[in-house]
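Sample entry (171 residues):
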Amino acid sequence: MKKREAGQGSLFKRNDGRWEGRVVIGYNEQNKPITKRVTSKDKLECERKLDEILKYQNLSLHRKDDKTPFGEWLEFWYSNYIKPKLNLKTQENYEYYIYTYIMPYLNGIELRDLTQSVFLNYCNNLKNFGRKKGTETHGTTLSDKVIKECYTICKAALNKAVEDGIFYENP
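Predicted structure, serialized as tokens:
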């Protein structure tokens, strides 16, 4: 059996006939290793699972150091990737959604801290308290159409972050 390189984890056959892979993914406060284990009936499948952990671990380390605020990424994405392709009226619509409904809520959150629960909370707050104009007659709730537009803009910006290697998956 070919030996794996240092830092690539270990792979061995257990007494019960299954294959097990282990890899060190970090160290705790006492400097003891934190390991992840995978098991499979097939050696190649176990090796694939182990390599996937390593792949995400490497990307995750890159992601953890990224302290860029979401608002900064959103402005960069809009200015460099989207705005040049849009006509004037569509630019106005994008800017209205970004600066009225997205930035006030998500601007200061770092990219590394974005999760599904953050976006769920954002959408709920937007739904219940997002209306800026006409609150006397319509209340503070916002329409589903506006929420969907804001969600679509955020999703597109984060998909581009995945494509650019900032994230390994869109939260």
